[in-house]
Amino acid sequence: MTFQERLITLRKQQGLSQEQLGYELGVTRQTVSKWELGVTTPEMDKLIQLSDFFHISIDELVGRGTPEPASEEAETEQAQTGREIHYVPYHWHYEYKSRRTLFGLPLVHINIGRWIPGQKLHRARGILAVGTAASGIFALGVLSAGIFSIGVLSAGILSLGAVAAGLLLACGGLSVGGIAIGGFALGLFAVGGCAIGVYSIGGLAVAQKIAAGGAAYATIAIGDAASGEIVIDIHSGITPEMVRQVILARFPETCNIIATLFSMAVS
Q1: Which one of 66, 133, 162, 195 is at 20 to 30 Å from 253 when CA atoms are compared?
Q2: What is the mean pLDDT of the chain?
C-alpha cells in the first residue's frame, strides 16, 4: 500500500475529513488533499506528526513497515470473512462552523473530541462556542471565556465553573467576581463556605463592611462567633428590623436590598 493509500485509509477509519485532519496537523485541507493525490509529500516533521497522531511507525505509514500481528479474534474474523482487518486507535473528533457570521465571528462553532496529550486543544470561537477551549458570547468548554461562560476553568461577565472568574457574577468551587458564589468566594458581594468581600455571607465570612455567618469578621459582624466594631449575636433576640437600622445607621449608603438581606440572618 502506498503512502497516499495508507493516509486515505487511516483518515477514513478515524472518521475525519481532510479539513479536520489538516486542523489537527496545523495545515490546510488543500495540503492534505495534495498528499493524498501524491502531488506532494509531507516533510519529516509532518510525517512524525502523522505517525504520532495515528499511533503507527513512520515506516508503516509510508508502506514499508510490517503491521503488528493481528489478535486471534482478528485472525478468526479475517479467515471467516476473507477481509483484511485493520485496527486503528480511537480518536473521535467533530467540528462544525456555521457560514453565517456576526461581528466577524461564526454564529456557531463546535469543535469537540477526544484530546490526546501533546496535541493541540480543540478550540472553538464564535457567538456560540463549544469546544475543549472555547471563547465567544456564549462559551462552553473545559477552558472557556466569554460574556456567558461555563467550563472547568471559566472567565467572563457571567461565569460558572470549578474555577470561575466573573466581572458581574461568578459561581464555582473557587470563584472571583463582582458577586461571587462558591466553596471559596472572593468578591464585592461574596457567598460561600469561605467568603471574603466588602459584603460576605458564609461559614467563615470576612468583610470590609458587613459579614454574616458561623464565624464573621467585619465592621458589622453577625453570627454565632462574631468579631468587629459592631457585633450582633443571632441568639440575642434582636429583630431583623433592628439589624437593618443598625446597618443603615453605620453605613447609610447601603442599598435596601443588602440591608434587608443581612437583617434576615437573625430571623
Answers
A1: 195
A2: 86
Task: Return the pLDDT at 113.
Answer: 76
* Exposed / middle / buried, residue 150 (Cβ in 10 Å: 0-12, 13-18, 19+): buried
The pLDDT tens digits of the residues spanning 20-54 come to 898 888 899 999 999 999 889 888 888 888 988 88
Q: Cell 469546544 sits at which residue?
A: 131
CB 126 within 8 A of CB 107: yes
Q: In 3D, which of 193, 200, 175 has the Cα closest to residue 261?
A: 200
* 69's grid cell: 500481528
Residue count (the chain): 267
Q: Choose among 258, 126, 260: nearest CA to 197.
A: 258
* CB burial readout 108-129, b (16+ within 10 A) else e: bbbbbbeeeeeeeebbbbbbbb
Q: Which candidate, 142, 140, 113, places its Cα nearest to that of 127?
A: 140
Q: What strands lie across the sheet with 108-113, from one edge to the other?
A: 93-97, 108-113, 123-233
Q: Write 186-195 long-range contacts (CB < 8 A, 24+).
A: 189/258
- CA 11-13-18 angle, 5° bins: 25
107-143 pLDDT, tens digit each: 999 988 776 656 677 889 999 999 989 999 999 999 9
Q: What is the residue type of 177?
A: G
Distance CA 177, CA 32 (A): 45
Task: Yes or no: say if 223 and 250 are a contact pair by the CB < 8 Å rule.
Answer: no
pLDDT, tens digit, 9 for 90 and up, residues 179-224: 999 999 999 999 999 999 999 999 999 999 999 999 999 999 999 8
Give the count of beta carbons closer than 10 Å to the beta carbon of residue 98: 15
